[in-house]
Specification:
- This protein is of the alpha+beta class.
- The chain contains eight helices and seven strands, in the order αααααβαββαββαββ.
- It has two domains: 136 residues, no CATH class; 154 residues, Heat Shock Protein 90 (2-Layer Sandwich).
- Strand 6 and strand 7 form a beta hairpin.
- Helix 2 runs antiparallel to helix 3 and helix 4 packs antiparallel against helix 8.
- The radius of gyration is 38 Å and the shape is rod-shaped.
- The protein starts with 6 loop residues before the first helix and ends in a 6-residue tail after the last strand.
Length: 337
């Protein structure tokens, strides 16, 4: 506090306030002398300057000379009491020499000490308030930093869950396909490599362009069509002007995978999935034909997407509804994070 940029303005204002306050309560006999008003104000101003500047110099000393568990503010105030006493003694001696009235030196010392201690106590009260405000702000900043680091770590863990889960399903399909059709298996492997290349390339990215996600989705849908044939229908309708907006990597893939996982996909009941844009949202909608025997949940899919978007866009930005059809609304991210 004592090192603030405009400290000399504050010193002047404090001296003016002290001068007016003393005139109102005690007249001009603060030092036991009848003093000219200009000299009186000058003495007060010099004392305020001396008290403030001595504290400014002592603030660094208090940080260096720490004594055990004594709070730095208490230690600082203790040092300032010594310096204020020295200032009062110097003022008393100077006035006695200047006016030649040594008989009044005891009264002058008492009054000088009283004034200097009041100024010093006021300044240290303000400094204590300033100190605790700074500490509070620093603690808030540290808490926010830790919160962000924790969120970053959680987001990284969520992002790293996608690849092994996707690969596990894809290799299951490939293992059943490789003995049936070598050419299709070869193309399947090419598309799988495209998909995995995308996931690997974007592993460290929080977001990707929607156009890149849609290109990745084409390869992923090819893999699904090999597995489900006409039992699965996926329609896409994304507005062209949204192609340069952003989305979390593999979001659409996870939603489609989630729909397939929880719904029946068969010749008798084909599963219909739509991926389309609506304003500032991408919507993934599927018909509801839930499996009677549910697969064991791995807590991926929708939970993963919710958590990632809570990090990217704030709480509860992913909207889910199941009125006749299961819909998930994903907010479009317009600027790169």
């Amino acid at each position: 506090m004592f090192k603030v940029k405009y400290r000399y303005l504050f010193i002047l204002l404090l001296a003016i306030y002290s001068y007016l306050n003393i005139l109102f309560t005690e007249g001009d006999r603060l030092f036991g002398y009848q003093i000219n008003s200009l000299v009186f104000f000058s003495v007060l101003l010099l004392m305020v300057i001396a008290v403030w500047e001595s504290n400014r110099l002592l603030s660094d000393l208090a940080n260096e000379l720490k004594l055990g568990k004594i709070h730095p503010l208490i230690l600082f105030f203790g040092y300032s009491v010594v310096s204020v006493t020295v200032i009062a003694l110097i003022v008393t001696w100077s006035l006695s020499v200047y006016f030649g009235e040594a008989a009044h030196s005891t009264l002058t010392l008492k009054l000088a000490l009283g004034f200097a201690f009041r100024v010093n106590l006021f300044l240290h009260c303000v400094n204590a308030i300033y100190f605790f405000i700074i500490q509070y702000k620093n603690s808030q900043l540290e808490a926010e930093t830790l919160k962000k680091q924790n969120a970053e770590a959680r987001f990284e863990a969520l992002r790293n869950q996608v690849n092994p889960h996707f690969l596990f399903n894809s290799f299951n399909v490939l293992s059943s396909l490789v003995y049936k059709d070598a050419d299709t298996s070869s193309k399947f492997i090419d598309q799988l490599s495209n998909v995995y290349r995308y996931l690997l390339f974007n592993q460290q990215n929080k977001i990707v362009k929607l156009s890149e996600e849609m290109a990745f989705l084409e390869s992923y849908i090819y893999l699904l069509k090999i597995r489900f044939q006409d039992n699965l229908e996926i329609k896409k309708d994304i507005a062209d002007h949204l192609r340069d907006t952003y989305i979390a990597p593999a979001t659409l893939q996870l939603l489609i995978e989630n729909a397939i996982k929880h719904n029946v996909v068969s010749r008798a009941t084909p599963l219909s999935i739509k991926v389309f844009s609506n304003g500032k949202f991408i919507i993934v909608e599927n018909s509801l034909q839930l499996k009677e025997v549910k697969e064991e949940s791995t807590n991926l899919g929708l939970n993963n997407i919710r958590d990632r978007y809570n990090y990217l866009c704030g709480e509860n930005t992913v909207e889910v509804s199941d009125n006749g059809a299961f819909k998930v609304k994903i907010p479009i991210i317009e600027a790169e994070i």
